[in-house]
Design goal:
alpha/beta, seven-stranded mixed beta sheet, binds guanosine-5'-diphosphate
Length: about 425
């Protein structure tokens, strides 16, 4: 089960402030580069070596007053179903309100751990106010100031007991592929098309939940497991929550797969939400391909695909290693190619490069373009090896690793990609002390 921590609570209690405190700063920097910060209500966090995804629920309800309560209520229900831990935020400075009690009533029905965060406990006086929330019937209240960060350590210590440590770094025997993307891009149509392939043998995998159809496929002569995120619409009654629900499903699908097919509606192009999904897959170091679907609806002039591809690569820069396939599920155009590409990416992700080949290619590159000396220190990279981890990871051994600049690390990554095909695969490059 995915490690999702959902922040719930009425408006203005400080949910997004708490979200920003929990989510890694590095995360925000990556997103800033592409101008995606505005729509961001989920991100990666980590505590005592345990990574988890935080989701700020409030951001998804922006409708008018009358749908507000129904939408929020449903959102809490979705959060309860999909998240592993719930942070229920209340406000010490305004005290307990009727809406807080409404939230509490919905939350009472879950077996999942609920932590009551009494926010805005900036000073002793406000901290005393926090005791008012014992009326909600929970054993423990966590006074926190999301603004200054005080109190958040104890909350995280207790909450992180419920988070699983990172998985064993081992490649599975059969690639697990997920199809993720915003509502209406064509995910279900794609999955149905695969289901109807003449030679596809589908076994529903025991133990998977009703609302995800994980299947073992043998389509187009390729064997793979597909995690399907379709069926999203049925699960949210209030339209404002479709996006919220689909984001939760996408996070889970990404965590449980080796390669993510990020499906995009070609008539809309790559939007902020799509980039967020791609970032999420990158952060989890998953293989990625982009499937530009509904290509049949695009007016084709001579170079349309090339232009669109260049535009997308521009938006993804510097991570432009992600392959893009232009498909039409409707006319079955290049649908096979998409599966084939996803399997190629899986193979890129699992392959091991022989140390001799690696050194032959990379030491020649390093000789041609050596790392610049820093503070009079001559930097010498002696050799490189691929570590035995699942995510391709390369260690360059060097006399002064600390003095190797980020730009040079990027150069090494580019050269690795040039010599050894890692299309669609995030890779790690480290410098180590020899
Ligand atoms: P949300 O609607 O629940 O996401 O709430 P926001 O995070 O947008 O915060 C609402 C207001 O409360 C903002 O003006 C915040 O600056 C303020 N706020 C958030 N956390 C704290 C806190 O720990 N102490 C104080 N004094 N104000 C806070
Ligand atoms: P999902 O919400 O991502 O699962 O999307 P669906 O599979 O339900 O598709 C949404 C709509 O797009 C449906 O009306 C499909 O028939 C249509 N659709 C899916 N793929 C294509 C395609 O390649 N071309 C066109 N023109 N329509 C498509």
């Amino acid at each position: 089960m995915a490690n999702i921590v959902a922040i719930v609570g009425r408006p203005n209690v400080g949910k997004s402030t708490l979200f920003n405190r929990l989510v890694e700063e590095r995360d925000a920097i990556i997103d800033n580069q592409s101008g995606v910060t505005r729509d961001r209500h989920y991100g990666q966090a980590e505590w005592v070596g345990k990574p988890f995804t935080v989701i700020d629920t409030g951001g998804y309800v922006t409708g008018s007053e009358d749908i507000f309560e129904a939408a929020i209520r449903e959102q809490v229900e979705i959060a309860i179903r999909e998240a592993k831990v719930i942070l229920f935020v209340v406000d010490c400075q305004t005290g307990l309100t009727g809406l807080d009690k409404d939230f509490s009533r919905v939350l009472r029905h879950t077996d999942k751990p609920v932590y009551v965060v009494a926010n805005k406990a900036d000073n002793t006086e406000a901290m005393y106010m926090a005791s008012e929330f014992y009326e909600l019937g929970y054993d423990k209240i966590y006074p926190v100031s999301a603004m200054s960060g005080s109190g958040s350590g104890e909350l995280l210590d207790d909450m992180s007991q419920h988070i699983d440590p990172p998985e064993d770094d081992e490649a599975p025997e059969i690639p697990r592929i997920s199809v993720v993307g915003r509502p209406n891009v064509g995910k279900s149509s794609f999955v149905n098309l695969l289901l109807n392939q003449e030679r596809s043998i589908v076994t529903n995998i025991a133990g998977t939940t009703r609302d995800s159809v994980d299947g073992h496929y043998n389509a187009f002569g390729k064997e793979f497991i597909l995690t399907d995120t379709a069926g999203i619409r049925r699960k949210a009654k209030v339209s404002e929550n479709i996006e919220f629900y689909s984001v939760l499903r996408a996070i889970k699908a990404i965590e449980n797969s080796d390669v993510c097919i990020v499906m995009i509606d070609a008539t809309r192009g790559l939007e902020a939400q799509d980039l967020n999904i791609i970032f999420q897959a990158q952060k989890h170091k998953k293989g990625i391909i982009i499937m530009m679907n509904k290509w049949d609806l695009i007016e084709k002039e001579n170079n349309t695909a090339k232009e669109v591809e260049a535009e997308i690569k521009g938006k993804l820069a510097p991570n432009d290693y992600i392959p893009i396939i232009f498909t039409s599920v409707l006319t079955k155009q290049r649908v096979f190619k998409a599966i084939e590409k996803a399997i190629d990416v899986y193979e890129n992700r699992t392959k091991k490069i022989a140390t001799s080949k690696l050194n032959e290619a990379m030491l020649a590159e390093i000789e041609r373009t050596p790392p610049p000396s820093v503070k009079g220190k001559y930097i010498k990279i002696k050799y490189v090896t691929q570590l035995p981890t699942y995510t391709p990871t390369f260690a360059f051994f060097c006399n002064h690793p600390k003095y190797v600049k980020e730009s040079y690390v990027r150069f090494l990554e580019n050269r690795l990609r040039k010599h050894f095909n890692f299309e669609g695969v995030p890779i790690n490059v480290f410098l180590r002390k020899k």
